[in-house]
Amino acid sequence: MLFSCGEAVPHTKAAANRTQQVCSKPFRALFDKNGELLQTVLLASGCGSDVGYHCKEVVVYDGKNQFITTKREKQYEIDQTGNPNKKVAFESNSRIRFTVNEQQISIDTLQHAKNEN
């Protein structure tokens, strides 16, 4: 695994205020034979934090020329006291492939599913 920001699951407003994701965002740069920059690509956008928000983003390198980024997000409904309940209001799952070639980094969406309840 190249990059993982972990999971942010604050259960109360106070916990959300204390929760901070501290991680750097991974970039991939491609240079030509003369050392000139051809392209840079952000491999992961990271996760935020909020009450009832659950997110995990992972970047994996296959050891050859591909990176796969997987991101799963859920936002739970908030009750009258400001705490999340078990009902999911929003859910998103995505997988993106970054392939490094000699002249460019190509980006392909392998999966993107979004559900809003």
Strands, helices and their partners?
Elements: E1 3-4, H1 13-18, E2 27-31, E3 37-42, E4 53-61, E5 66-78, E6 84-100, E7 105-116
Structural description of this entry:
The chain is mainly beta. Helices cover 5% and strands 55% of the residues. Strand 6 (84-100) and strand 7 (105-116) form a beta hairpin. The longest helix is centred in the first third of the chain and has 6 residues, at 13-18. The protein has one domain.
Strand order of the largest sheet: 1-4-5-6-7
Separation, N- and C-terminal Cα atoms: 32 Å
Helix and strand run:
EHEEEEEE
Q: Give the low-pLDDT segments.
A: 1-22
The fraction of residues assigned to DSSP E strands is over 45%
Structural domains: how many: 1
| Sheet of most strands | 5 strands, antiparallel
Using the alpha-carbon principal axes, give the shape: elongated
Number of helices: 1
Find the count of extended strands (DSSP E, 2+ residues). 7
Mean pLDDT, to the nearest integer, reads 78
Oligomer: single chain
Structural category is: mainly beta
**Measured on Cα atoms, how large is the radius of gyration?**
17 Å
Proportion of residues in helical segments: under 10%
